[in-house]
């Protein structure tokens, strides 16, 4: 972990909380704290935040592991469902060749909605199974 780079990121975060200026001495002790009037953060608060920041950044993901969201977003599930529908479009058109365009669209939308839900449920099950395998 590049301490100076992390410190710079931390200071940028502190600025969003009302810290105008902050420094560190050669020992790494926080000095020269200047705050906006509405900022209630003190030296002790910032020291604790900095230590927490460092611990959080030190949490290394093992090589070969990929951090994944626990849930598949609605947007991605919808996109996957549309792609899946496009793969069966000609079969769908053939099966519903006598239906009106409105009826075909209703069926297509329902199919995509159900497929998106299936993708989300399967994704969730996959993530849960993977988590259980790492717990043991």
TrEMBL record:
<protein>
    <submittedName>
        <fullName>Uncharacterized protein</fullName>
    </submittedName>
</protein>
